[in-house]
Amino acid sequence: MPYLTECLNSLVGQSIGLDRLEVVAVDDGSTDDSGRELDRFAERYPGTVKVIHQENSGGPAVPSNRALEAATGRYVYFIGSDDHLGPEALERMVACADQYGSDVVIGKMVGTNGRYVHQALYRENDPDVTLTGSALPWTLANTKLFRRELVERHKLRFPEHLPVGSDQPFTIEACVRAKKISVVADYTCYYAVKRGDAGNITYRADHLSRLRCTAEIMDFTAGLLPPGPERDAVLRRHFTWELAKLVQDDFPRLGREVQRDICAGIARLADSYFTDGIRDAMDVKRRVRICLARAGAVEELCEAITAERAHGAPPFVVEGDRAYARYPGFRDPRIGLADRCFELVGEAVPGRLAKGTELLASAWEQHGDGITYTASVRVPVLGDLDGAVLRLVRGAMPKTADKAGARRLPADHDLPAPAGSVTAEPLPDATVLHARVPLERRTVKLGVRVYLDVAGATYEIPVRGKDRPMPLARRWGGEGEPYRAAALVNDKGRVVVATAPLFPPKQTLGSRLRATLVRGPRRTKRKK
């Protein structure tokens, strides 16, 4: 309560109609008047709502199994009492299953109140998806329409001893056994609610409980699927999601014995299932943490997590067309991890580059009747940066750019030639690019951007200048018309160079008259 009432109203209000709907509600030892609310709905809808009262079982598996035993419809669909359905959800999913002969139908699911729900599977309607060719492995909750004949033929039930994740073995096996799995993506069927008190059971389990449950789910999956792409597709999700969550920001605050137990559990699973394909498909941040845990490098793992939280991603080491994230443990002979654990493997990293690329100093150099803008820019990259380019570019970054401001250029891009010269100075944790860019006589605002090759891709990175002093505006021009150059930081925190004539052309009488006619006469207040 009060989530339950909204949930029940969303069920009895389904467009499919009460005559085609059976609601089996299991009161699992509730203590907040939920049982009384269920009975109220059962009295109001006697042919539709059935209520089963039982002692608290400690998790969702037992009540789910009890409901399955009582269900009589052609299809079954599971919903948590915190959540609710869109009005046409069941009608649309049943129609999809009937049209395509689907054993499983997945209706679009969204999170509310800050609840995260993976969205990649819901890009478009699809009558036939598989574990290997879609984002299905990232959507393993039981909030799906299942053909009851499939469930009973294979005696699918929820493991009642699992406090967390008990829906995954049921869902995984149903998807493996199904002849066809379909997606309804053009209508929001399910609204997953994060409770205001964070009381959802997923948020209450401790690290070791989640580790044990994840291990059992992974072992179950391995027993269901032979080694190969299908197994990798499912288990990649568990390495990237469930196991990686165990080594997030709160890991360094755990007791050392708990930390060791977590690492030992991850190591056992990695030794069994962490194939090269899963490793290379993971982003470098999570991959490194799994590899450090597998190696039992608790100190380095804590250092990697703490440093990244405080300072952002570590610098990249560029060696030819390869790049490596220099996390703790990189090329440390005591740990013995392969370089591949730290390598950027087809991974776009614009956010990491943008956050670490910043202006250190800037000035003007005057020579004759010309002027040059000089800048020292720090980039979070180590290695061979002889091809780095710094340019002053007109126009804003495109809307397709990364939120942090950088973007990965397409493979067929034309890299702009340097406007001036750039030299690279290596530092222990970064590289400083010293650039000299001659300015032209024109009225324009130009963004200061770095173009950099990392791991076989070229990135365009706007230079951040927030909290950095800018040089005073400078006049230049010699015998010609004098110009003014100014450097500033715009409202996005990026460095911009502006040039314009020192004395703008004076308006003639005719131009002032035309402007007055366009704007209209000025109105003056009448004196009372």
Explain this structure.
This protein has helices at residues 3-12, 34-44, 61-70, 89-100, 148-153, 167-177, 207-224, 229-245, 256-273, 276-281, 284-294, 298-311, 350-356, 509-519; strands at 23-28, 49-54, 75-77, 84-85, 104-112, 145-147, 181-193, 316-319, 322-325, 358-367, 370-379, 381-383, 389-394, 407-408, 421-426, 431-438, 444-454, 457-462, 474-476, 483-489, 495-501. It is an alpha+beta fold and 528 residues long. Strands 13, 14, 17, 18, 19, 20 and 21 form a 7-stranded antiparallel β-sheet that branches. Strands 3-6-5-7-4 form a 5-stranded mixed β-sheet. Strands 10-11-16-15 form a 4-stranded antiparallel β-sheet, covered by helices on one side. The longest helix is centred in the middle third of the chain and has 18 residues, at 207-224. It is elongated, with a radius of gyration of 31 Å. Residues 200-204 have low confidence and may be disordered.
Secondary structure layout plus pairing:
Blueprint: H1 3-12, E1 23-28, H2 34-44, E2 49-54, H3 61-70, E3 75-77, E4 84-85, H4 89-100, E5 104-112, E6 145-147, H5 148-153, H6 167-177, E7 181-193, H7 207-224, H8 229-245, H9 256-273, H10 276-281, H11 284-294, H12 298-311, E8 316-319, E9 322-325, H13 350-356, E10 358-367, E11 370-379, E12 381-383, E13 389-394, E14 407-408, E15 421-426, E16 431-438, E17 444-454, E18 457-462, E19 474-476, E20 483-489, E21 495-501, H14 509-519
Parallel strand pairs: 1-2, 5-7, 8-12
Antiparallel strand pairs: 3-6, 4-7, 5-6, 8-9, 10-11, 11-16, 13-17, 14-18, 15-16, 17-18, 17-21, 19-20, 20-21
